[in-house]
Amino acid sequence: MTTLEHAHEEHAAEHAHPGARTYVLVGVILAIITVAEVFFYTQEAVRAFLVPLLLALSATKFVLVVGFYMHLKFDHRLFTGVFGFGLLVAASIITALLFLFGQYPLPHPAG
Amino acid sequence: MAHTAVPVIIDTGAAPPAAVEAPLVLEHPHTSTGLDSRKLLMWAFLASDCMFFGTLIATYMVYKNRSLTPPLPRETFDVPYTSVSAFVLLLSSLTMVLALAAIQRGEERRMRVWLSATALLGCVFLGGQFYEFSSFYREGLTLSSNLFGSTFFTLTGFHGTHVFIGVFWLASLVTHSFRGRLHQEHSLLVEIAGLYWHFVDIVWILIFTLVYLIPD
Which residues fall within 8 angstroms of residue A16, CB to CB, at 6 or more apart? Predict the structure, then answer.
């Protein structure tokens, strides 16, 4: 296969986005996850592992929107690389700041 | 004998030429990657916006529970109300992607309907945020009342500004379409606007969990 043919195939694959049915299905899943988040938030029984549970549900919604609605699952991998780099830096900033302020905590409010 | 030139107007029945508007740019020039630079630029912008919101979210979380004076998050938030706002923004992402699917099929009228619905849902979200901010203000929470107020309003205010810009962008696309300047071959313009809109949505997915749902 020539480089040109390869480029054409890649370009065609880049535009092979899912149809309306898939989009609606993803929308329904997102709505169900949102309802589940609020449900778990109100349940005392899951209080012990509420934070990891909510983070996992939130991450699932994030991946669904980025993968299907923003088409990263179907588009060229360069887009994933560019966005992933920004996301990695953002996650590193959050983690580093939480770690730093955990190591050197600010004084707690009185009372 | 002198002749005078008289202009002759011949009615051919054809309509006079309409004023031609400048066409939108369709084709992207050749790039080494074969990808459209505009789309790549949007992804680069979204990556930088990730870092921007990353710092705002980190600042909110670091200063969480550090306020010396009330009101505090637990006594301020109305989670069921914010859940509806989150649902509205999720729904707007669905209508946005349906607008893109419509223009990729060449269904311009349907695209206008979905784009208008997206902009309308964005306005509903902004109205909800305005109401929420107003009620917080009445309870004594302002940008300068305590650490919670400063970090919360900065984070959610910048997100709201992004939504406002998105609504304006969507409205301009609908206007272009009504003027007959947005066709199937311009679907990339809708796709790029959609990328921005979905990004605003995923930021709210994180804010909703990290700010509103995770307990103090």
Answer: A74
Q: How far apart are CA B169 and CA B119, in angstroms?
A: 9
B195 → chain A, closest CA residue: A70
Fold of the domain spanning B79-213: Four Helix Bundle (Hemerythrin (Met), subunit A) (1.20.120)
pLDDT, tens digit (0-9, with 9 covering 90-100), for B35-68: 889 999 999 999 999 999 999 999 999 988 777 7
Cis status, amide bond into A107, omega within 30 of 0: no
**CA-to-CA distance for A52 and B80, rounded, in angstroms?**
21
Q: Which pTM value belongs to this model?
A: 0.85
Long-range contacts of B27-34 (CB under 8 A, 24+ apart): B28/B188, B33/A76, B33/A78, B34/A7, B34/A10, B34/A11
Chain A contact probe: residue of B209, B214, B216 with most A CBs at under 10 A: B209
